[in-house]
Amino acid sequence: MANFYIKTNAVTHELPDNKRPKFFMFGVPGYTNMGDQAISLAARKYIENEFPEYQYIEVLEDDDDKAIPVVKKAINRCDIVAFTGGGNMGNLYSNHEVARRKVFSTFTDNLTISFPQSIHFEDNEDGRKEQKLSQAAYSKNKNLVLVARDAQSYHRMQTTFNNTVIFTPDMVLYMDPLKKNVKRSGALFVFRHDGEKVVKDSVVQGLKKSLDNGRPIEFTDTVLDDVDAITPVTRGKLYERELELFSHQEVIITDRWHAMVFSVLTGTPCLLMGNSYGKGKHAYFDWIESIDWVSYTDEEDLGRINRQLKFLMNSSRHDYDVKPDFKQLHDIIKNYYQNKK
Amino acid sequence: MANFYIKTNAVTHELPDNKRPKFFMFGVPGYTNMGDQAISLAARKYIENEFPEYQYIEVLEDDDDKAIPVVKKAINRCDIVAFTGGGNMGNLYSNHEVARRKVFSTFTDNLTISFPQSIHFEDNEDGRKEQKLSQAAYSKNKNLVLVARDAQSYHRMQTTFNNTVIFTPDMVLYMDPLKKNVKRSGALFVFRHDGEKVVKDSVVQGLKKSLDNGRPIEFTDTVLDDVDAITPVTRGKLYERELELFSHQEVIITDRWHAMVFSVLTGTPCLLMGNSYGKGKHAYFDWIESIDWVSYTDEEDLGRINRQLKFLMNSSRHDYDVKPDFKQLHDIIKNYYQNKK
After folding, report:
1. What is the nearest CA distance from B280 to chain A, expressed in angstroms?
2. Which residue in B148, B90, B158, B85 sits closest to B283, CA to CA?
């Protein structure tokens, strides 16, 4: 199926002229964070698998402003508007939050879904100011449904906004696991370089030392630095390349939630550490604590962490099933379509 | 308001003969577990506060079997059937599970709500057998809504049953906090004596020793042993007595989830430890991790636990707000009433 999306620079696609109901996904990332790219890939796969009656249309984040009036003019009663999921609701990534407010406060007559997100407004002047702006914008839309991807965010969304809030996993957990047996070698350290980083360098260096007994050790991030931008056309291949990378590792040490998700999907032993506000920790306990080859820790004692790593690296693979946990999202879309068609 | 409930021994109340819609709560406990009693108290308070149009009718668990045909005959289209919340869905407490199946498979034409529960079917022959029986019974009721009180249970219910599953806190977190400043003295150890117990005696005794510097130390359980049974008439006073007991303590050490909830409500420093399947741990992380005077640990190192206790005992009290987290339950009931009336 062709990719339809509105893009004002390199490639421009017009809105398709047909009678199918449309699912407009705004805020689709062009930047090179593979976690966010995988989210967009999974959201598309989810809608196209579960609701084939809908035509899925992606609006890249750079085009949100130009696309809003175009979509506003073309939108029909069955159509659904959505905004990309991730870990950026709040005041830490205000470009995303500003775009979200515009979309939510514009399409007030259609089901509008904020795809699975974590939320964090800081408890300071900027956080409170931005929260008020978001509350004002979100409250204009009675058809807006917020999806929380962890219980902490579910609680925060319900205490912050008056909108309906539902609870599902991160979209990437909808993706199929990669089931092949490849030879594993090496430890991959996947760490963020942004303001959310809290893991101490001494802990990371200590773990590097203890894993470094002839084993290849590499450092990377899920934010790619060998491409400038990613589009819905190129992200599929890059996602596969990322899973391929993970599937060859003996172990992943990370503070990136999606590095843990990629480890789940590839059966790769993985230890997740904290970020500044617990988004990975909560998502881990909520959805994947029962998966034997991944775990979370706040520990700083190297002896204890090494014992935990040994346990993970010796664990067996087993089946798991997170897909039923998307049911609240499924029911919201299904009921809307049945009422409107 | 009078207590209406069907009771076949001491006191018998007939079903009230009026036109008000009824809210039938089955499985109301008569046993002396104050956690479960507080749940029943809170459920009644919740419905009476939020849906005053409904008349709340409690059916004690001993009377479930006799009440089912009586209610079946009298039930009207606006009426709602519910089964008491708690931590007993699964195969560990089969008397509750058997009663639940009967109620769910009987009232299939009315909204039926399984109040906030944790679920645990063991991964053994008995667990699998009982799970199949529950799946068969629950699947007969298309109007059944299961409420999970922690994310682990939300996941398990969605992977086990085809019914709608929603996510709210334990009902007791709906109760108002006790805001009075009383003189605190002593440490209270509140430990279970049932099959869910996993905390090592050496840890408990070690903590007792370190807290025992002239401070009164007592051991108790939230299951009372000075009364034989509790009814909807007597539970209110016993609940107040329990909160009074907690509010005078300097610190609570416990493996009982509701001992932690009573500590939240009374502003009492509390450290919660594990049970056999993590129901307290998950509920803690999901709803009350942001409350400073309570915490959870799996730790067995006494030095570390003592540092955590010191931190809790030095923490300040602050406001918290869990009530918005009951919104999914509220919306289900509100929408049902508006569609049926």
Report:
1. 13
2. B148
Q: For B143-161, what is the mean pLDDT?
A: 97
Q: Which two tokens stand for residue A1?
A: 């199926």
Q: Which among A150, A164, A325 is the nearest to B155, CB-wise?
A: A325
Burial letters B38-54, b for 16+ CB under 10 A, else e = bbbbbbbbbbeeebeeb
Tell me what pLDDT residue B187 has. 96
Other Cβ atoms within 10 Å of A333 Cβ, number = 20
Say if CB A263 and CB A269 are below 8 A apart. yes
**CA distance to partner chain A, nearest, from residue B155 (Å):** 6
A286 to chain B, minimum CA–CA distance in Å?
Answer: 5
Min Cα–Cα distance to chain A from B278, Å: 11
Residue B190, φ and ψ in degrees, nearest 5:
-115, 100
Q: To probe the interface with B, which of A158, A301, A321 has the most B CB atoms within 10 Å?
A: A158
For the stretch B260-294, pLDDT in tens is 999 999 999 999 999 887 889 999 999 999 999 99
Query: Number of helices and strands (H, E) in chain B?
Result: 11, 13
Contacts of A280-283 with CB under 8 Å at 24 or more apart are: A280/A255, A280/A256, A282/A118, A282/A150, A282/A151, A282/A152, A282/A153, A282/B285, A283/A118, A283/A149, A283/A150, A283/A169, A283/A170, A283/A257
Residue in B closest to A165 by C-alpha: B328
The full set of domains in chain A, from first to last, is: 5-174+323-340 (3.40.50.2000), 187-313 (3.40.50.2000)
pLDDT(B313) > 90? yes
Per CB-CB distance under 8 Å, the chain B contacts of A327 are: 158, 164-165
Q: How many CB atoms lie within 10 A of CB A80?
A: 25
Are A154 and B164 a contacting pair at CB < 8 A? no
- Mean pLDDT value across residues B316-339: 96
> Which ipTM did the prediction report?
0.90
Mutation for A interface: B173, B289, B318, most A CBs within 10 A: B289
- Partner B contacted by A276 (CB < 8 A): no
- B98-101: Cβ within 8 A, 24+ apart: B99/B26, B99/B27, B99/B61, B99/B64, B99/B65, B100/B27, B100/B134, B100/B137, B101/B133, B101/B134, B101/B137, B101/B138
Q: Higher confidence at residue A180 or residue B110?
A: B110
Dihedral (CA of B168, B169, B175, B176) sign: negative
Contacting residues of B for A144, CB less than 8 Å apart: none
Contact B325 A154 (CB under 8 A): yes
Q: What secondary structure letter does DSSP report for A26?
A: E
pLDDT at B12: 54
Is the Cβ of B276 closer than 8 Å to some Cβ of chain A? no
Burial B109-130 (b: 16+ CB within 10 A, else e): ebbbbbbbbbbbbeeeeeeeeb
